[in-house]
Target: Protein kinase domain-containing protein
Amino acid sequence: GSLSQTPPPPHPRIGRPLHKVLAMRMLADCARGMQYLHSLQPPIIHRDLKSQNLLVTPDLSVKVADFGLSRECLQPGAMTRVGSVQWAAPEVLLGQAYCHKCDLWSFGVVCWEVLTAAVPFDGYEQTTIATKVAMEGMRLPVPPLGAR
Model:
């Protein structure tokens, strides 16, 4: 399954965040995968990094998947607006020039999602999210750090 789904037992994620140690390990796996893509020459931009595109193995490792929208970044420049709005960086939403750094924004949203077990920008329409993030500076709230 993907990181957005319930990991296999014995680590249920039913409406609550994963244990911090497991969450950090899974996020570190994702970060290593993205670091590899960005270290290539030329760097690869995933352009649709989100929890649904992070596959969880039976040993609870995470693998970056779905490279259908990925592109080589020969130089920062204007590219097509792609990806999922909840995870898209402001420059992508605005149709401005972007590079591999847009994946870092998406990774931050994935971190928020994993740490809160909530859907990013839940309750907002796609167009509202795009406008508020890109034009009005709307950001996800910093999640509270619990005892988990």
Residues 6-14 have pLDDT under 50 and may be disordered. The beta strands are 44-45, 54-56, 62-64, 71-72, 77-78, 97-98. The chain has one domain: 20-135. Residues 25 and 61 are 8 Å apart (CA to CA).
